[in-house]
């Protein structure tokens, strides 16, 4: 898992040629070109988590709720 997967120019090729099964990155940085070049790159959308975090901070609400109620993607 790479939270901010800053993939260099040859990263997609290196990942595809490696024994790595999958590289999971968040959508905080665009990876469209790299994903087209390599099927081993998966992007997880965290936009709702960021939006809810901002809302909770703005309203002085607990952030711990976000960590206790994380949906599990099987």
Describe it for me?
The chain is of the alpha+beta class. The chain has one domain. It has four helices and two strands. Strands 1-2 form a two-stranded parallel sheet. It starts with 10 loop residues before the first helix and ends in a 6-residue tail after the last helix.
Question: In terms of topology, how is this protein built?
Answer:
Layout: H1 11-16, E1 23-26, H2 32-37, E2 41-44, H3 47-58, H4 64-68
InterPro entries: PRTase-like, Rib-P_diPkinase
Pfam families: Pribosyl_synth
GO molecular function, one term: magnesium ion binding
* Alpha-beta content class: alpha+beta
Terminus-to-terminus distance = 15 Å
Q: Determine Rg (CA atoms, Å).
A: 15 Å
Give me the side-by-side strand order of the main sheet. Answer: 1-2
Biggest sheet, in brief? 2 strands, parallel
- The count of helical stretches stands at 4
Low-confidence stretches: none
The total tally of domains equals 1
Average pLDDT over all residues: 87
Number of strands: 2
The dominant shape is elongated
String of helices and strands: HEHEHH
Percent helix, as a range, is 25-40%
Kindly estimate the percentage of residues that lie in beta strands according to DSSP: 5-15%
Brief descriptors of the model:
74 residues, Rib-P_diPkinase, ATP binding, magnesium ion binding
Kindly summarize this structure in a few lines.
One of its GO terms (molecular function) is ATP binding. The protein is an alpha+beta fold and 74 residues long.
């Amino acid at each position: 898992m790479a939270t901010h997967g800053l993939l260099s120019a040859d990263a997609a090729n290196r990942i595809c040629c490696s024994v790595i099964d999958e590289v999971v990155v968040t959508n905080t940085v665009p990876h469209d070109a790299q994903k087209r070049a390599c099927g081993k790159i998966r992007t997880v959308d965290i936009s709702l988590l960021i939006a809810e975090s901002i809302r909770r901070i703005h309203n002085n609400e607990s952030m711990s709720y976000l960590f206790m109620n994380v949906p599990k993607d099987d």
